[in-house]
Amino acid sequence: MAIDVKVPVLAESVAEATLMTWRRKPGDVVKRGDPLIDIETDKVTLEVAAPNDGVLTEILRGDGENVTSGEVIARIDPARSAKPAAAAAQPQAASPARPEPSAPPAPPPAAQPAAPAAAPRVGPAARNLAEAHGLDLAGIPGSGPGGRVTKEDVLKKVGTSAAPAAPTQEALPLREAPAPAPEPAPAAAPADAARPAPAEPPRPEPAPQPVAAQPAPDAGGRPERRVPMTRLRRRAAERLLAAQRENAILTTFNEVNMEPVMSLRNRYKDEFERAHGVRLGFMSFFTKAAVEALKKFPVINASVDGEDIVYHGYFDIGIAVSSPRGLVVPILRDADQQSFAEIEARIRDFGQRAGDGKLTIEELTGGTFTITNGGVFGSLLSTPIINPPQSAILGMHRVQERPVAENGQVVIRPMMYVALSYDHRIIDGREAVQFLVTIKELIEDPARLLLQV
Fold this sequence. Notes:
Elements: E1 3-6, E2 17-19, E3 29-30, E4 35-40, E5 45-49, E6 54-59, E7 66-67, E8 72-77, H1 83-97, H2 99-102, H3 107-111, H4 124-132, H5 151-161, H6 166-176, H7 189-192, H8 231-246, E9 249-257, H9 259-276, H10 283-296, E10 303-305, E11 308-310, E12 317-319, E13 321-323, E14 326-328, E15 331-332, H11 340-356, E16 369-373, E17 392-396, E18 400-406, E19 409-423, H12 429-444, H13 447-451
Parallel strand pairs: 12-16, 16-17
Antiparallel strand pairs: 1-8, 2-4, 2-7, 3-6, 4-5, 6-8, 9-19, 10-11, 12-15, 13-14, 17-19, 18-19
Helix pairs in contact: 4-5, 10-11, 10-12
């Protein structure tokens, strides 16, 4: 009885998903746990594996189709997984049986034809071509995997064994072929009369060469390629447009002297990595600073629900991560309760699994505040867009040495521009500016992060 391959149970917020590319085709033997296809949702990519050993008998939904939770997309027949082995045994049992009748006249010669029992290792095309030319497959050496006789092996045999008769019969059609003149092969026909190698005539491969002339559909030399958006990209586009349409977004800027954090990091980075098994980066400092600033300005951590403002008493920080499929924002839950090492480990794990498409829907759902770092790509300044229903987002940028004034003198310092985009419906400019100033003060004096002052 066939076993159904179903779409995994999707999250409540996900109505449907899109099938990507099937990795197997009908007739393939699969084992339990083998990946069959990836399913793309609005937030993550889910892998559908074979539920049982067997043969993939049919695919019900093709590449790129939309599916829903629990829908049957393919079927596997577990009973057919053992048939190939049984079928392989039958030709061998049948071939030794033939020499038995011929054994009385000549037992020794009859025993040797039984040796070429490897004849079953022949493809259908090679078998048909050999039968058409009356060739014995047992006398054709196979050059394919495991000694398999291929079509090319049969063509070589045809060229050597049928050389005298084939040229006259094959050359005649080739001489009449120049009338249509689409095929360049007729030019070789006169020479074939003198050559004992008519392996060229049976070859149909040269005929499809006109297809190679198709790469020039763009006469103007301005090619275009139309690619449909992925579901993740479409969903991100919808959310970004909705954010700009439904929120009163405003951005305030400041700059941070990164020298204190960089000095602290350089002083302890090796010892930190030995003790915790993870590198010390800037994100843990900014995450800790954001949590402390959110405690002082709770409205930055709030969200709008209809005509209400919802103040969150927890700190679930979204960390924007770039992946091959687009930007994703996994959530660092209860960031206020995590150490520097735990934050760095979680962020590194998010980055790795985002690249592999292994983040779960739960890890991408929720969040009260987001941090994005365009500086890793070289961005010097930007205006990030908030991630609804959140009300604010902090943007980090590239660290760049610039001349700044300190105590009446011009000095060179590693500086970073920071930006806070916020929903002006519930967050006033005063709160937004003071929030960003708090971030600046904590980063420029990292000891305050430890003392929480």
